[in-house]
């Protein structure tokens, strides 16, 4: 199984632990990732906020590159990148006047048009494939038994549902929960799965984001979770860094980090040491087999 791989800007910088763990997990599951050659920023979130043309043109360039590379569908771990790439694909599929004008302009710029032959896949979609689920179940060597987690999907994996959602019910997504169960963790039922974390308002309105993050963390804690799990770099950053002083800190994992631990993969010390909320107490409570697989939190 092979995919073109679009890491996006965050996974090559502030969320490098998501990139490292995604690559490690996919390799362990027999999935080959071919990083998209000469990829560019998808525009999240300043590009699409400043230019209607860039909203489509930036992700569209990556879609054209993926078609040219011909290494399979395009795997995208970042929820924001996934949303914008899916939005561009959806726009081009409409074949309306604006879409045709965009394609003509890309033909002039790149010498190629977008033909719509690439499917954009989020990492959760691939992890939920039946053959991958079987490999996860067979490969777990350190089950996350006793770890109660709140699967947090955020906004961009479920909205707008006609464009991006791969869930039967985007208001009550279950894909991440199912994957976490395969790893031995216990996802809790809770109401905050798709609440907004505040996204890039963390820069312009940090107080508002702290309030929103506080509600999410409190809801997860009330439901019995001891950790949050996400598949979005911006969500992870907000949830990990914007918890209110004095509030009991809750660690926030990427789904691939926990899968990597459950599969017994090397390198988790590089992933977990980048977290701001200390992961050690929660993982130590899961079992001795996990405590040696991670390092002290901190940059």
Which features does this protein show?
single chain; 299 residues; alpha/beta; Glutathione S-transferase Yfyf (Class Pi), Chain A, domain 2; Rossmann fold; 2 domains; 4-stranded parallel β-sheet
Describe this structure in words.
This protein is α/β, with parallel strands linked by helices and 299 residues long. It has helices at residues 8-11, 16-28, 46-50, 52-69, 79-94, 97-110, 123-127, 130-139, 175-182, 201-204, 206-222, 233-241, 255-262, 268-272, 280-286, 288-291, and strands at residues 2-5, 32-35, 74-76, 120-122, 148-151, 186-187, 227-230, 252-254. The two termini are 34 Å apart.
What is this entry, summarized?
49% of the residues lie in helices and 9% in strands.
Low-confidence stretches: 291-299
Give the radius of gyration: 19 Å
CA-to-CA gap between the ends? 34 Å
> What characteristic shape results from the CA principal axes?
globular
Treating each run of at least 4 consecutive H or I residues as one helix, how many helices?
16
Largest beta sheet: what is the strand line-up?
2-1-3-4
What is the helix content?
40-55%
Strand content: 5-15%
What is the number of beta strands?
Answer: 8
CATH architecture title of the largest domain: 3-Layer(aba) Sandwich
